[in-house]
């Protein structure tokens, strides 16, 4: 067993809905692999990150925070989450959320 990083965008009315939809999409794309697919389906919840990322793009922040695993993963398996609507100021019917972290593979 090893590990790898993942970055996934989820769309939903809430972060929880977007996370569930992203996990289900991963299951559909990669099958139900009992937690070793290397994507978001191996995570166990998320931690919403509201700290300032003014000097970075959301992707740059995700990469930096993934490199410092303790900043997002204070319990086994949680991934980080950034609200892209809040981060970019875009107007949309549904929010987009950026999920990222480490996954078993």
> How many β-strand runs?
4
Strands of the widest sheet, in order across it, are: 1-4-3-2
SSE order:
EHEHEHE
Based on helices, strands and strand pairing, what is the structural class? alpha+beta
Largest sheet: 4 strands, mixed
How many alpha or pi helices? 3
The amount of helix comes to 25-40%
**What global shape is seen?**
globular
Low-confidence stretches: none
Q: Ends: how far apart?
A: 6 Å
Overall mean pLDDT stands at 77
Strand % is: 25-35%
Radius of gyration: 13 Å
Count of individual domains = 1
Secondary structure layout plus pairing:
Blueprint: E1 3-12, H1 15-30, E2 46-48, H2 58-67, E3 79-83, H3 84-88, E4 95-104
Parallel strand pairs: 2-3
Antiparallel strand pairs: 1-4, 3-4
Task: Describe the protein's architecture and organization.
With about 100 residues, this protein is an alpha+beta fold. The protein has one domain. It is about 30% helix and about 25% strand. The protein is built from three helices and four strands. It has helices spanning about 15-30, 60-65, 85-90, and strands spanning about 5-10, 45-50, 80-85, 95-105. Strands 1-4-3-2 form a four-stranded mixed sheet, sandwiched between helices. The longest helix is centred in the first third of the chain and has 16 residues, at about 15-30. It is globular. The N and C termini lie close together (about 5 Å).
